[in-house]
Amino acid sequence: MDKIKTDIFSAEIEIIGINPFVYIPENILKSIFIQANKDKGKIPVKLKIDGHEFIQTLIKYSGHWRLYLNTPMRKMAKKEVGDTANFEIVFDPEKRVIPIHPKFTKALEKNKKAEEIFNNLRPSLQLEIVRYLSFLKTEESIDRNVIKAVNFLLGKQRFIGRDKP
Length: 165
Description:
Helix content is 38%, strand content 27%. The chain is of the alpha+beta class.
């Protein structure tokens, strides 16, 4: 993957709630912490699951570091909960930036109140909205959801499973 040392391990895919994940072996976690120069917060990583490459974020939840495996990852690797997979993992120093969809930018420019509310949201909620809009496929769903996002900001409707911000 990179010049940085890639760590390799095998693990059984487990589930907590509805979220499939694997535990990272302690020695590999220590290696990633050294690479990342931190052992707190979210840690971006590059990984391969049985040879299929992805980017993901290590998260500590309820006292344990977990590597969550979303549906597209598991489908590509043809792995499900209960299966064992081979992993290659390395800290990812690249800055991860998701651009704001141009239609959302235009909608915010047209509605200054929504723009002001968006700019004052906590960064994690801004990112949640931006990420949601960036992964939509059709122009119709983008248009429909940009309207929903603006209405959400104005407190008029639910969006991304939330009531008003």
